[in-house]
Design goal:
The complex is a heterodimer of chains A (about 120) and B (about 110).
Chain A lengths: L2 E4 L3 E3 L5 E8 L8 E6 L5 E7 L6 E3 L7 E6 L4 E6 L8 E8 L5 E4 L3 E5 L2
Parallel strand pairs in A: 2-11
Antiparallel strand pairs in A: 1-3, 3-8, 4-5, 4-9, 5-6, 7-8, 9-10, 9-11
Chain B lengths: L3 E4 L2 E4 L5 E7 L7 E6 L6 E5 L3 E2 L7 E6 L2 E6 L8 E10 L2 E4 L3 E5 L1
Parallel strand pairs in B: 2-11
Antiparallel strand pairs in B: 1-3, 3-8, 4-5, 4-9, 5-6, 7-8, 9-10, 9-11
The chains are: A mainly beta (about 120), B mainly beta (about 110).
Chain lengths: ~120, ~110
Amino acid sequence: QVQLVQSGAEVRQPGASVKVSCKASGYTLTSYYMHWVRQAPGQGLEWMGVINPSGGITSYAQKLQGRVSISRDTSTSTVNMELSSLTSDDTAVYYCARLGILGYFDSWGQGTLVTVSS
Amino acid sequence: DIQMTQSPSSLSASVGDRVTISCQASQDISNHLNWYQQRPGKAPRLLIYDASNLGAGVPSRFSGGGSGTDFTFTISSLQPEDVATYYCQQYDNLLLFTFGPGTKVDIK
């Protein structure tokens, strides 16, 4: 079955960067777009960006342009999300989510808590 | 970017009540609108896709409608397990997505 397994919780200081990974199994990574969504404590869902793992084309939310980068490693079926210049506002649970053929997120990772604190 | 609004931001209803949530897009998105349920501490779960199609295994008390800029989501008979936050989500194309701010549903 489809599984998305994310890397573990991270703590970073303001100004640092963080990289969260999402390892896909049970399907061919290059066949489905992979998105990243985050959720700050007590807040709503925020779409961050997407990668087409086949060609590597990416698209990002305007708010995060220049700070976020999504990449993939097809040899390990892994998608990575890197966020730089962290502030306390970036403290959130970060999810990877697969976009199914019907145009909705049909599988989610378990979430990775990133805490930004001095 | 396309902006999404939802109303109300929260509601409290009795078991068996009909509950309706509205979602509005800042521009025409045709029927490219999905609805998700999120329980505390869990990842979101798809309920409705393309505005009105019920997701696999989703109870029939959930339904959706609308097109263009105005959409609705309805729970025909609220159950205790429906306590959650509900989000609409648009995709104008496959590379730009937006979530609504969410509607928290409680039992009175």
